[in-house]
Structures are given as structure tokens and as C-alpha cells.
Amino acid sequence: MNPNQIESIILDCIARLNELREGDSKLSTEGDAPLFGDGSPLDSMGLVTLTMDVEDALADQGVEVGLSDSRAMSRKQSPFRTVATLVQLIEEQMAKP
What we know:
Elements: H1 3-18, H2 44-60, H3 70-73, H4 83-95
Helix pairs in contact: 1-2, 1-4
């Protein structure tokens, strides 16, 4: 699976999440969109929902990742800042044996 396919899955998950959100609480569906932190309307529960949805969507494609493992959560720079940083995290996890 390439980065564009991963990004597409994440953006699809964001679109589904946005169906449940109203107005200013909707997330941007751009590749450099902020997911969590400054500039994002997503709170911690929303992040959990999104990451679980992304994990499930990847699993449907035969890719097993754990986005909420302790290594991801304890990084100095959060991998959940933007769509692009989340793509990088998934690529890293896919590369591990």
C-alpha cells in the first residue's frame, strides 16, 4: 500500500466522521489538514474514534496497525498532528516486521 492509498483511507474516515459533526466542528479533508492540536476541532475522544476507524479501514485492506500504541503516544512530536504525519506513522508501522 502506498502513501496515496493510505491518505485516501484516512480522508475517507474523516469524511465519515464529518457526517456526525456540525459546522465548525468538521475536519478539513485536505492532505495537510490538522487532525489534533492547534487548528483542529477534534478532541481526544474524536481522535480515538478516528484512529479506530482508520485501523478498521486498513484492516479491511489487509493492513494491521496499532495507532494508539505507547510508542506513538509518547513521541515528542505527535504523529496525529496532520493527515501527513498520520500517513508517516502508518508507513512506519507497516515497515516493521
